[in-house]
């Protein structure tokens, strides 16, 4: 796959959902980490390679490591995080949120490919929010359920049609 874009599309800002994912990480730690967005509109910053080694020691003593792995995974595998990594001039950041190094072209391309795959998945299964739902099937009485089971699973409407 060729690189989908070569120009910067501006800073990728956090939504309320991104902030919620960041809060899930911070609640597991003894102190907040500044690389994560704290409110909607904050910039999403790509993590430095090996940042896990800096975050892991901050885990609260009573919290399992797997909880932290799941929380960070939810944040790092989000569409907006991939978008932030895919930018041509994206930089990796340390725990304090300071830029350290640019993302490699390979990492940017991988993020662009993941982003494209997420978009394809969403396009294949659109879920319109305002589409009316079909009404629930009519509730059957206990007697009707017993009759249906005695008739070998045939629908009651089949029996009534005879």
From TrEMBL:
Record keyword Metal-binding present: no
Region (Disordered): 114-143
Keyword set includes RNA-binding: yes
Pfam entry (one): ProQ
Classification via Gene3D superfamilies: ProQ/FinO domain
Upper taxonomic lineage: Bacteria, Pseudomonadati, Pseudomonadota, Alphaproteobacteria, Hyphomicrobiales
Keyword set, alphabetical order: RNA-binding
GO molecular function, one term: RNA binding
Bias kind Low complexity: ranges: 114-123
InterPro entries linked: ProQ/FinO, ProQ/FinO_sf
Record's protein name: ProQ/FINO family protein
Signal sequence, renumbered to the chain: none
Organism: Rhizobium miluonense
Residue ranges occupied by any ProQ/FinO domain in the UniProt entry: 20-131
